[in-house]
Amino acid sequence: MNNAASILILAFLALTFLQSGYEKIFYWQDNVTWLKEHFAKTKLKNQVPLALFHLLVLELISGIFCVVGIIQLVTKSGREFGFYGAIFSCICLLMMLFGQRLAKDYDGARTIVIYFIPAVIAVYWLN
């Protein structure tokens, strides 16, 4: 299998973002409450539900594109959806990194970088 590493990274990203999207959908109020507290001292304090909704949409797009990208790689019918899934994953992670830095949660920001590295590798391999 020529694309094993790309498939594994896309699976990692798909699981990450589809699970995160699931949690946002089914535990919406818990997330909003926690994030309002997290961003209480920032300019985002009044924008939490809207920002969370935007992130949710992008996470679902990322996860779905990654799944379709895996199917494309397995069936050797292209790489476009995997590439777009990786790009949208990077955008989601950059949005989260921005939020963590804005909230001065540097440990949280550091954790996001761990996810960002394989996402950028996927962009590079699938380009």
UniProtKB/TrEMBL annotation:
Keyword Transmembrane helix: yes
Transmembrane segments: 51-74, 81-102, 108-126
Keywords: Membrane, Transmembrane, Transmembrane helix
Domain of life: Bacteria
Name listed for the protein in its UniProt record: DoxX family protein
